[in-house]
Structure prediction request, 738 residues.
Amino acid sequence: MDVAAWIALCSPAVAVGLIALAGERMPRRTAGLVAAGATLVSFAASVVCLVALAGRDAEDRSEVSTVWTWLSAGDLNVGLSVLVDPLSVFMMLVVSGVGFLILTYAIGYMAGDAEERRYHAYKALFVFSMLLLVQGGNLLMLLCGWGMVGLSSYLLINFWHARRSAVEAGKKAFIMNAFGDATFALALFILVQHTGSLDFDVVFARAPEALGESSALAILVALGLLGGAAAKSAQIPLHTWLPDAMEGPTPVSALIHAATMVTAGVYLIARTSPLFELAPSISDLAAILGGVTILVAGVIALVQTDIKRVIAYSTMSQIGYMFVAVGLGAYGAGMFHLMTHAFFKALLFMAAGVVIHALAGEQDIRRMGGLAHELPWTYRFFLIGALALAAIPPFAGFFSKDAILASAANSGGLGWTLWSFGAIGAFLTALYTFRLLFVVFRPPMSDFAREHLHKERFEGPLAMMWPVAVLAVLSVVGGFLQVPGLWHEVDDWLGPAAESIEEATGVTAWFSALAALGLALLGIGLAWRLYGRPSEAPARLRARRFTGWFAHAFEQKLWFDRLYDFLFYRPASRLASGLGRYVEKPLFLTTLTDLGASVRGLSGRVAAAQTGVVRGYALMLAIGLAVLTVVFLLVS
Amino acid sequence: MAGPGIAAYLIVSVILFAIGAFGVLIRRSPLIVLLALEIMLNSGNLALLAFSRHAGNEDGQIFALAVMVVAASEAVVGLGLIVAMSRLRADLDVDKLTTLRG
Prediction:
């Protein structure tokens, strides 16, 4: 099992090395196949781990495999190790499984791009980083994966580096993620100081004593971890990078910003759940951040006009649900939603990618319309994804979202508040998802679409279509893994790693499920009323301007970007230019130039003594010797 | 043992050394400069022999032999340089070799 875990981790890294070293010698398509193949190997190895783990007793399902001690300082020893337990295997399966489908899709999507090989290498690097993150056998390895995921997402977002907006989006994502990395690292410092270790089991065993329940230290640690989780998972207030990250190629959006990276925060909270349980206020804070994000991202998604940005805001909103779940302690429900979300969100992104591909790179939904007839399969896949996202039974999203809502309903006062957030979120989700669906696919066809639509043999390349189909199937059946009230496969499986709270049963559960379903259907109905009727797409979008000020506020994304610009960017840039003008220029630039000039002048004069006449040198030598002799004689 | 004392030998050695050093400083022909150098080395030899005799052991003599070897090799190298120099430029004048001027 250890070997399988290491194979799962290393095979994408090997692929990166191969593609990077082979360079031009490797055909472009082969590079894509190597990357996808390596991920498939990872997936197979993950399945082996799953089978091996399932064959053991529930208490015995955790194993750390250390290759060697990587870092040793005093009493602190950190090994290069991987952890195989139910939680990490669960994530490995999601990451490598969905990752494999997306990498295969990318072969078709990126075919013909000038720098295809680099792209596939980055993708494999990303899968490796993500696997390192979920498999890391101690908190330091987890942090390494955390940082590398940030790096590879930066590389992928500004993959089209000639595009200024892509480069800026990449930098933004990197900086916001670095902020989270920093708070995460600070939390680890506190843990090293007080527990003297970074191994999961040691830290969790010593933490209650070393930190204390609800102590300032425990709160600081949990807050640091939450900072990292919120930045990586694009939760308010560290969310602004995610919509901009849509500048990257669409498979990147699917891989990073839907299926894997943004869910890392949820994984982190589930993984370090003992630390969060020591600081209940921070757990609640995580749940509240999630609840607020559900609503804010939901309303912003209502007015976005870029097909990928709508899905991006939807991602934020869905991760909000997961944060609510893990914040309240329903780890099983959170991870379950993580999995189904990975299925249907990757499906939506990839179906959107097919649309973008068919429309020569256009992403603005105001120029789309009426594509259902031209791209019938894409339409069906998108519809499945939309139904799953809107949590309509029997699609996957229903079961996972219902599990979260039922768990929230069962956890008292705060739980009910968050339940209501989630229920409103369900309405918003259905509304924005079907707005997108209707505007893009319902007739009539827009002029732009008529002009630019170019289909290949099969709506898109075959490499693109079959992963989408697989994901569509998973989005339909994935939900039956856990049916609230009936069976709890995910909860049971994850139990040894992170015990979940009970979810509501009986009347509460029925009420919760029916209310959410009703609200979702209401959302779909409203979307039909507003956008479903045939008319020109721009006109339909204009008709939805419900009230001026609100719509404006949502279109401006509630001014988060402006606020950060005002709070951080401008003071920093002013400080920097001030320092440049008043400190660097007079103090360093001028002084250094003067210093250099005077040294040159002096050495010019000294150089004059170097006449090149040998006899002169000999004379100097003789005089020097004479002077020395006289001095010695006088002294002695 | 009869004969002049060590002081006389040393005085001769100093005079020889001064003659050699003066030659090095004032003559411009490289051949003469080399010759003057030999005089300086031999004045050193004379002083070594005198001290050897004075001390009553053979250390100085052996050292003088070593100096001769060095002097011979130096003469070979120096003459070789002078030949190379004369091939490169017609006149042999050490003052004109100022390529290394700073």
Notes: The mean pLDDT of chain B is 87. Chain B touches chain A at residues 21, 24-26, 28, 94-95, 97-102 (CB under 8 Å). The longest helix of chain B spans residues 59-88. The CA atoms of residues 41 and 70 of chain B lie 9 Å apart.
